[in-house]
Amino acid sequence: MAATIKAIATAAGVSRGTVDRVINGRGGVSPEIEQKIKKLIVDMNYTPNRAGKVLAGLKKPMKIGCMLPSIDNPFFYDVILGLKQSERELSDFGVSIEIAQVKGFDPNDHIRAIKELIAKNVSALCVSTVDVPAVQNVLNAIIQKGIPVISINSDLSHTNRLCYVGCNYAESGKTAAGILNLIRKEPLEVLIITGSLNMQGHNQRINGFIKTLQDKGIKHHIAEVIESMDDDHTAYTRTLCALKKYDRVNCLYITAAGVAGACRAVEEQNLQDQMTILTFDDVPATRELVLKNVIAATICQEPFKQGYESIKILYDYFVNGAAPKKTHYFTDTVIKIKENI
């Protein structure tokens, strides 16, 4: 049986990238190591596979542009760590990433950041962006020019993106409703605090939540849906205003960032003991509030994996020349409470 690059790398005590450099004559390897690898190639009966041939045929390094609404949003720290881990593992194969960060959900800011990445001659894009026509049109024009796009963390409609990598938002919304059904008596007066109604994922969390409450026949009323723009100050002021307006609210359903701000409003009104609060993700501020029993549970979505897998999928796409096997790569839905966070 013919050996693989991985087997040769293990036998030589080097990385797979180093073996690839020798196979494709790209230099950067000491003469002693190069000679050792060449001998192993012969002794172990290595035959270049299709991936090796495609890599050898690449005319330039592969730079992947990543656009994230990550400024002042600690959730994305782990997404970025995942992106960078993939970059490190694939750096010997000429893969690098260029990250453009924006704050909030202004379509113009997102479009500007995407165009700046394209101006840097990226080979592909990973984007977490608002699902609005202006952005969809820009991305479709980019795709038509031969630059593949993956949606990461929040999906996009009406685009020819390769695939989506991220949370199953509808499932996580249903999960939140299931948790609430277990721990809160009816009737429910719910204040929903979301990031942006232009983010597909945030809307799916709301729709999955409400549909499950309805399907289970749980008596509930949605007092209002307010946008925090993933900003703690905005979440605080808008939640405080809503709590004063709706004095029967007994549940906060926070579908995105702004958790610390919203909870601060609850605590200032001394409502934490009568309020059930459900949130998403395991960031430091949320973790602290779970441990303080202010938040009943937070539902998580493996952000590191989202970043890591997105780069790997694009790399495989360029190597194999075929579309991904799936249109949706969902990460796991993980419930965390005080006892396991």
TrEMBL record:
CDD domains: HTH_LacI, PBP1_sugar_binding. Residues 3-57 form the HTH lacI-type domain. GO terms for molecular function: DNA binding. Keywords: DNA-binding, Transcription, Transcription regulation. It holds the Pfam family Peripla_BP_4. It comes from the Bacteria. PANTHER family: HTH-TYPE TRANSCRIPTIONAL REGULATOR GALS, LACI-RELATED TRANSCRIPTIONAL REPRESSOR. This is LacI family DNA-binding transcriptional regulator. The lineage of its organism: Bacteria, Bacillati, Bacillota, Clostridia, Eubacteriales.
